[in-house]
Amino acid sequence: MQLKELLYKVEIETVVGDTSVAINKLTFDSRTIETEDVFIAIVGDKIDGHKFIEAAINKGAIAIVCQELPTIQVEGITYILVKDTAKELAILAANYYKNPSEELKLVGITGTNGKTTISSLLYQLFTKLGYKVGLISTVNIKVGDEIYATKLTTPDAITINKYLSKMLEAGVEFCFMEVSSHGIAQFRTNGLHFTGGVFTNLSHDHLDYHPTFSAYRDVKKSFFDQLPKTAFALTNIDDKNGSLMLQNTKAKTYTYALKNNANYKAKIIESSFGGTLLRIADQEVWVKLIGSFNAYNMLAIYAVAELLGVEKLENLKYISTLTPVDGRFEYFISSNKITAIVDYAHTPDALENVLNTINDIRTKNETLFTLVGCGGDRDTTKRPLMAKIAVENSTKVILTSDNPRTENPDKIIDDMLTGITPTEEQKTLCITNRKQAIKTAASMAKEGDIILIAGKGHETYQEINGERSYFNDMDYIKEFLELNQ
Ligand SMILES: CC(=O)N[C@H]1[C@@H](OP(=O)(O)OP(=O)(O)OC[C@H]2O[C@@H](n3ccc(=O)[nH]c3=O)[C@H](O)[C@@H]2O)O[C@H](CO)[C@@H](O)[C@@H]1O[C@H](C)C(=O)N[C@@H](C)C(=O)N[C@H](CCC(=O)O)C(=O)O
Ligand SMILES: Nc1ncnc2c1ncn2[C@@H]1O[C@H](COP(=O)(O)OP(=O)(O)OP(=O)(O)O)[C@@H](O)[C@H]1O
Ligand SMILES: N[C@H](CCC[C@H](N)C(=O)O)C(=O)O
Ligand SMILES: [Mg+2]
């Protein structure tokens, strides 16, 4: 491939050198440069990638895409000056992989909570309907039934386009992908051709990264502003920011709701630990997921499937067979009838929803233990809020660690404690070691009690001081509950 083939639709300010040169691959990381690569210098959060231009050339880069031309330019190297390298990276990546998003039906799901649930269940639904399907999610990336590990919810633009291209080669027709606020802000999804976009809800999260809540909201909205007019834009109109998301979109707009008037409506008829009976489109349908937040998720899934052409009865038939996603209200009942629930609730809103769901279903004679922590190097303002929600909605609380990363785990727990009163502290234990905390909950619980372990869901690691070691909430609680028999 020649460099000039990459430049279609790229907003170029200046070109220095030859664009007819052959190129190998694209990279924004100088450490991965090979001969004839194109290096894109990104101004990062911590480091300015422009510092590595010289290193990239020394390792064999043939072309440099930058926001600032280096003072000394090397003979034989082509320099492409653009205004914003992060933004153009996505266009270069799409060109490199021959714009795979234009050949697929790509649906992006955004919002604070529910993205993994909706995208993974849409993957399940369309697979059951007989299609070859792709998925880009927090848990993993799937190309048909091949599974790939991932570290981010929305990967960088090169990775996204690489997998979309793999999907095309494998005959995938539909791809469902999570679109995180970091992904939008860093232009990881720029230049992708979406068939549809879904907004789930907006609540407190990532205020470490976005300067204000309205900045966070506007980033989410910009995803809908960029949808083409051929796309559908589906929003949860019960969320107070639901209508705002669609204010300036060119796409065809649709709404879903449990409370307000909407194009797609659902009603909860009955709920238990076994599932929920819903009324969707005037039909009753039994689903295996529980909680009103999951009623929203199921309704969004139904609506997306209909907007993609799935017939109503077939849609409902398969929706009733969908099984919960790993670590999202996953539960285990021990032989002495203690229920342990592992859930990925790592925001105040998600924690409150999960606890409300449990409290709506349980009899209240039992003890409800909630074990929760907050991530290090992440939004600190959610810490007191999550502790407060835990104590207000549980009988006993154990505050513990959840990926302290580079922070002192005891300091994180201290931050959480500022959210609760001295009286509430009496029903709270602080056990920094999460495995020990799980063991303690298991040993304190009696027949009929419920233990909620929140925050890590499907994660199989605990990150301490930048090192990840094996950790699995569900495995440990099963082990400790069965040991106590
Ligand atoms: C805060 C954040 O999102 N950071 C992302 C960002 O890194 P950065 O801007 O900090 O990069 P940097 O370290 O300053 O480096 C700047 C540039 O210099 C380059 N570099 C650096 C060193 C070197 O020797 N050579 C070199 O070329 C780097 O490759 C980079 O291009 O760009 C990187 C490349 O795409 C990402 O891997 C990285 O994600 C980090 C690891 C991360 O943890 N991100 C999380 C917060 C995230 O994105 N989460 C969202 C949201 C999840 C949710 O909704 O809950 C997600 O989508 O996963
Ligand atoms: N529609 C919803 N509204 C509110 N809370 C939800 C909803 N769906 C799921 N949750 C709660 O949020 C948690 C995370 O759900 P999910 O993984 O689907 O969200 P996400 O948007 O993918 O999160 P992330 O930003 O980490 O990728 C669940 O474990 C559950 O507690
Ligand atoms: N995508 C989120 C996940 C948080 C999960 C929680 N277990 C934590 O580590 O804080 C993030 O990286 O902020
Ligand atoms: Mg997710």
Word description of this protein:
The protein is α/β, with parallel strands linked by helices and 485 residues long. Helix content is 32%, strand content 22%. The strands form four sheets. Strands 9-8-7-10-6-11-12-13-14-15-16 form an eleven-stranded mixed beta sheet, sandwiched between helices. Strands 17-18-22-19-20-21 form a six-stranded mixed beta sheet, with helices on both faces. Strand 11 (196-199), helix 7 (213-225) and strand 12 form a beta-alpha-beta unit. Helix 15 packs parallel to helix 16. The longest helix has 16 residues, at 292-307. It is globular and about 75 Å long. The mean pLDDT is 95. The structure holds ligand UAG, adenosine-5'-triphosphate (ATP), 2,6-diaminopimelic acid and magnesium ion (MG). The site of 2,6-diaminopimelic acid has 9 residues, from loops. Adenosine-5'-triphosphate (ATP) binds next to helix 4, helix 9 and helix 11. Pfam families: Mur_ligase, Mur_ligase_C, Mur_ligase_M. A motif (Meso-diaminopimelate recognition motif) lies at residues 402-405.
